[in-house]
Design a protein that fits this description.
The chain is an alpha/beta fold. It has one domain: Vaccinia Virus protein VP39 (Rossmann fold, 3-Layer(aba) Sandwich), CATH 3.40.50.150. Helix 1 packs parallel to helix 2 and helix 1 packs across helix 3. It is globular and about 45 Å long. It starts with 7 loop residues before the first helix and ends with a strand.
Length: 288
């Protein structure tokens, strides 16, 4: 992503969350009316003009991925918060709106959003234009993952590295080199206390996919590259689990497409379905 350009794909995912509420049948997988705050950029206007295309199967599948990864991460956040997690760190937060939708049961959390400076600036300026008040428990932190460590970014922000933290890293690692991904995850396992955890989504390597999965992956890669955010990293899930163990994580929990469908799509009467190339992972920081 260019240094002075905010993330276009983050606007696209916010658009998809809103489209879900307007077009998809009940039950809703994820509710985010606050996504409307980000619909007035020129890029968003262009995508709104193509809503009539949103019921094409491949776009429905892409939308489902955006919905499920947010629902999954927030379900995991609630699970870890119930056992003592005190901070919520969003890496590559994009147009996430959890800080505005936070349920009363999680109001005790300190929320830190990390993202590229241009994306953070655009988001904060947009909210300021609309008069949206940022809750006192929320801190925005600019970071360039290719040039800064998490510890460097969080210095002087009030973040407490002694407290258990839940980390979400959604829709990001596709666009990073494997070296940057390894460095980031290894740093997390070093600097966060035991019992902290991270959830993230990733794409499977093409040789693990059927023909439909390969076609969907190629479509998504083309979609991202055209907006200046090309895919750089794909993974074999079993190999990734072993890598996470080597990087200092215990109990990596892989959640594949079949499990995600069972959790979030059972009983649906519409054609909303998940991309075949995606999976999610939650990994706990192990003993030091």
């Amino acid at each position: 992503m260019e240094d002075q350009k905010y993330s276009i794909t983050s606007i696209a995912t916010a658009t998809a969350r809103l489209v879900h509420l307007l077009l998809d049948e009940d039950p809703k997988i994820f509710r985010d009316m606050e996504a409307t705050y980000f619909m007035d950029s020129e890029g968003a206007k262009r995508r709104r003009s193509t809503w009539e295309l949103q019921n094409k199967p491949i776009l429905m599948h892409l939308r489902a991925l955006f919905l499920v990864r947010h629902r999954f991460a927030e379900d995991e956040l609630a699970r870890f918060a119930a056992s003592g997690t005190e901070q919520f760190l969003l890496l590559g937060a994009g147009m996430d709106t959890f800080f505005l939708r936070c349920p009363d049961s999680l109001r005790h959390l300190k929320i830190f959003e990390l993202d590229h400076p241009a994306t953070q600036n655009w988001k904060q300026n947009r909210l300021a234009e609309l008069g949206v008040k940022i809750p006192d428990n929320t801190t925005f932190v600019p970071v360039n993952f290719e040039r800064q460590t998490i510890r460097e970014a969080l210095a002087d922000t009030g973040f407490n590295f002694e407290k258990k933290t839940f980390i979400s890293w959604l829709g990001v690692i596709y666009y990073l080199t494997e070296e940057t991904i390894q460095n980031t995850l290894s740093e997390i396992s070093r600097i966060f206390p035991e019992g902290s955890a991270i959830s993230f989504d990733f794409c499977l390597k093409e040789d693990l996919l059927n023909e439909q999965g390969k076609a969907e992956l190629q479509f998504t890669k083309k979609f991202a590259a055209e907006w200046g955010e090309p895919f750089l990293s794909l993974f074999n899930p079993e190999e990734l689990v072993e890598k996470l163990k080597g990087w200092g994580f215990s109990q990596p929990e892989l959640v594949d497409g079949e499990e995600l469908r069972s959790r979030y799509f059972a009983g649906r009467t519409d054609d909303l379905d998940l991309m075949d190339y995606c999976a999610l992972m939650t990994a706990r920081v192990g003993p030091k």
